[in-house]
Amino acid sequence: MAQNYENHKRFYPPFHFFAIPLAVLGFGFAIYVCATFTSIITGLIVLAFFLISIIAVMARMFALKAQDRAARAEEKLRYYILAGKALPGELSMGQILALRFAGDEEFLALVDRAVADQLSPNEIKKAIRHWRGDYNRI
Fold this sequence. Notes:
Blueprint: H1 13-36, H2 40-83, H3 93-99, H4 104-117, H5 121-127
Helix pairs in contact: 1-2, 2-3, 3-5
InterPro entries: DUF6526
Transmembrane segments: 12-33, 39-59
Keywords: Membrane, Transmembrane, Transmembrane helix
């Protein structure tokens, strides 16, 4: 299926719909058990579920940061190839990530517009006429 503004957000079901909900439910249940039966073991179970939840969220954040860095490098290179100069430093990471969906024919003009008008990432995505899908990012 071709990507566009309406369907470009992606979920990874094992993570978003299985791991995170189970960690949150386990943490909530552990707190309930700890409140009902106070003991060191139940306190340790609460701590374990808390740590599992934190690790799951941090793992997701670290993966997104790595993807952001790769996408920024790709867009800097693409801009350099198309324009022969460095990508403007005024662009935020969110703007750069939104610009990756623009086709080459409108990329340079959209970069200039994003810098001049301080377009939000959402405004940039809505302004794209020839969507270039990113099928690798989750």
